[in-house]
Design brief:
The longest helix has 4 residues. The chain has one helix and 26 strands. The radius of gyration is 18 Å and the shape is globular. A hairpin with a 2-residue loop joins strand 10 and strand 11. The strands form six sheets. Strands 1-2-19-18-17-16 form a six-stranded antiparallel beta sheet, with no helix packed on it. Strands 3-26-25-24 form a four-stranded antiparallel beta sheet, with no helix packed on it. It has one domain: TolB, C-terminal domain (Neuraminidase). It has 349 residues and is mainly β. This is Glucose/arabinose dehydrogenase.
């Protein structure tokens, strides 16, 4: 595919694969509501049918239920979590059939591996491990999980600091995985036989989001030069560790957007209409990326720059509000007295 490289200034580069055709509808960033404060590295976040949110804390292993206007309530503490560096209790996803099965999924680091478990919200003390044996480390654990529009569970898994994992099809590290809700290999849709691997060549992806047409996008940490947003396709190879950012190597798929690592260090992502939002840690901003409806992107805009420090997770709520979590107590930030916080930005009238 032919691409045009456009410099955006301050080290950012945009890779345009098609013209931008849809205008973004931004949230009301001048009217924030603090829905929770005093947290310790909130990481995973997803919404229940009643509009309340479930949130993980990386270092405490707590799962919290958060509602605007109410104090966070502890749902459970996940047993066996071993937080070290970037590892701990990471992603969370609510079952798309929650009203029937009451299930919540979490991705966490144990003493021996990274794993995914699920529990019933009405019986949270008895989680069931559905996937284990993912290599763990103090860095590059990935950890985001989300259900796709196909009802399958997707997981981002980092290379665990071993770069060769990413190109090893037999390793589940440095990959995006796609699995049935019970952790099994789907009968159709995965590119490699009897394998959970959906895409490969990843360093440390931490954002997953689908556009209205069902296309999957992932945000990924680069090493020293380029962070990425990638359009994910089954069997796609995204180049790490051979490539960081763009290349002319036809074995690998190029990102649709790249930033310098100082501008981004992207973690969570969500899509509202044709706008992809990406939370930036080192960049201390929320990136708004207009999507063009054909798998490409327009010019990104930096929002909330420097206002709340490191931003970890962004999710669109059922009512259209945008929820954003800070990550200033993760050992790399400068926390305010009320950090970490969950902020809610309502949709514009």
């Amino acid at each position: 595919m032919h691409r045009t490289i456009i410099a955006l200034g301050l080290g950012a580069v945009l890779v345009v694969t098609a013209p931008h055709t849809a205008a973004a509808m931004e949230p009301d960033l001048n009217n924030p509501q603090v829905v929770a404060s005093g947290l310790t590295v909130p990481w995973g976040l997803d919404f229940l049918p009643d509009g309340s949110a479930l949130v993980t804390e990386r270092n405490t292993a707590r799962v919290l239920r958060v509602r605007p206007g109410s104090a966070p309530a502890t749902v459970t503490t996940i047993a066996g979590v071993s937080p070290t560096g970037e590892a701990g209790l990471l992603g969370l996803a609510v079952s798309p059939a929650f009203e029937q099965d009451n299930l919540v999924y979490v991705y966490f680091t144990s003493a021996t591996d990274n794993r995914i478990a699920r529990f019933r919200l009405d019986a949270p003390a008895t989680p069931q491990v559905i996937l284990s044996g993912l290599a763990k480390a103090s860095i590059h654990d990935g950890g985001r999980i989300a259900f796709g529009p196909d009802g399958m569970l997707y997981a981002t898994v980092g290379d665990a600091g071993v770069t060769s994992n990413a190109q090893n099809q037999q390793s589940r590290n440095g990959k995006i995985l796609r699995m049935r809700p019970d952790g099994g290999v789907p009968t159709t849709g995965n590119p490699f036989p009897n394998s959970l691997v959906y895409s490969l060549g990843h360093r440390n992806p931490q954002g997953l989001a689908w556009d209205p047409q069902g296309r999957l996008y992932a945000a990924e940490f680069g090493q020293n030069t380029w962070d990425e947003v990638n359009l994910i396709v089954a069997g796609g190879n995204y180049g790490w560790p051979t490539v960081e950012g763009n290349s002319n190597d036809t074995r690998f798929r190029n990102p649709i957007v790249v930033w310098s690592t100082a501008q981004a260090s992207p973690s969570g992502a969500t899509i509202d209409g044709q706008t992809l939002y990406v939370a930036a840690l080192r960049g201390q901003r929320l990136w708004s990326v207009p999507l063009n409806g054909t798998g490409g992107a327009g010019t990104p805009s930096a929002l909330l720059q420097g206002q709340y420090g490191r931003l970890r997770t962004v999710e669109r709520a059922p009512d259209g509000a945008l929820w954003v979590t800070t990550s200033n107590r993760d050992g790399r930030g400068t926390p305010a007295a009320t950090d970490d916080r969950i902020l809610r930005f309502p949709p514009r009238p």
